[in-house]
Structures are given as structure tokens and as C-alpha cells.
Design goal:
about 190 residues; single chain; elongated; about 20% strand; two-stranded antiparallel ribbon; 5 helices; 5-stranded mixed sheet
Length: about 190
């Protein structure tokens, strides 16, 4: 028997038991018998293997597509190609956060996440382009991290850490210099 474990992977029962073909034949016979009796449908609650197989076949025949629609890579693929001198942009709202994706042949791709009344922008180079992040609105960034690959998330977090450490070091230098200047004035 073919089943589905909790991790979403398929497995077979005992090797070579051949029950899958028997299940499909039995399902087809049940549907035919129900049709002769004037009943519609297959008489299952939709949880049997055959019912799921039928649903999958119907879904494929419908031509619909399923999958993530809000990752940056997918958004960029769906956008048209920009002409020289005229970038194209698409605005997306992801988890309530405004994300603007821009394709520009001159400057490359840029992704702007959120923004506050008093923005403090940093720019991070990632595999999908330059990500513009407002350090005063990191909550918006956290809501949008699932749009990026793990490598891009690592690059974003390292850049934020680097900028914060550099600013802390500059603040300490300023405090030290100001402390020395004030000490000299007192003397």
C-alpha cells in the first residue's frame, strides 16, 4: 500500500506486495457498481488512496498550478523584462507588510521592505538583488523573512549585526573622545 507519512514523503508497504493495483481495481469496480445503482461519486470520504489519486488527476487536468507565489524569486520571474532606462516595479503585501520589488537593467534588482516615518536604511546584497531594510522597522523585516532563501536570510542578518556593531563602536569612540575633551577642559 502506498501511504503518506507525516513528513510528506511517500512510502510503500512491504516490498512487492502488489496491493496498489488491487486497490485501484477495487476502487474502479466500486465506482462502476455505484453508477449502475444510480449513485454518484465513489462513496468514500476522500481519504482513501484511490480517492486522493483521482483528485490529483482531476487537479492536473484542470491546468491549475499550485505553489508559493510570494517568494522574491517567484515575484521576479513573473515580472516582465524591463527596457533600458525604464525599470518596472511590483508592490506586494506579505503578512501585512509592503514590499516593493523593482527590476532595473541599469542598477539591478532591488527589494524594499517596510519603512517608518524616520527611516534608517541599510542595503544588503543578496542572490535576488539589493534588499533595502529600514533598521527602525525591523518588525516588518521579520514578517517577510520567509520570502528569502536561507542564504539570503543569513546575509541580511549578518549585515544588520555588522551595522549595529559598527554603530556601537562609533558611539563608544565618541563617548571616549567626549570624555577626554571634558577632562582636559576641567584641568
Amino acid at each position: 500500500m502506498i501511504g503518506n507519512d507525516r513528513f510528506g514523503t511517500f512510502y510503500t508497504g512491504a516490498a512487492g506486495n502488489g496491493k496498489t493495483a488491487d486497490q485501484i481495481r477495487e476502487y474502479a469496480e466500486t465506482v462502476a457498481r455505484r453508477g449502475k445503482m444510480g449513485l454518484s461519486g465513489d462513496g468514500t470520504d476522500g481519504s482513501s488512496f484511490a480517492a486522493k489519486l483521482k483528485q490529483a488527476d482531476e487537479y492536473l487536468e484542470s491546468g491549475q498550478k499550485c505553489g508559493a507565489t510570494d517568494s522574491i524569486g517567484i515575484i521576479l520571474r513573473r515580472m516582465g523584462e524591463p527596457q533600458a532606462g525604464s525599470p518596472i516595479s511590483q508592490e506586494v503585501y506579505h503578512n501585512g507588510v509592503r514590499v516593493v520589488v523593482t527590476k532595473d537593467p541599469m542598477h539591478g534588482n532591488s527589494i524594499t521592505i517596510g519603512g517608518s516615518a524616520d527611516p534608517d536604511w541599510i542595503h544588503v546584497n543578496t542572490s535576488v538583488g539589493t534588499v533595502n531594510i529600514d533598521l527602525n522597522d525591523t518588525e516588518s523585516l521579520m514578517k517577510c523573512l520567509d520570502m528569502f532563501s536561507p542564504e539570503d536570510i543569513t546575509a541580511i542578518m549578518h549585515k544588520i549585526l555588522e551595522v549595529k556593531q559598527a554603530r556601537d563602536a562609533l558611539r563608544e569612540i565618541d563617548e571616549t573622545v567626549n570624555g577626554i575633551v571634558e577632562t582636559e577642559r576641567e584641568v
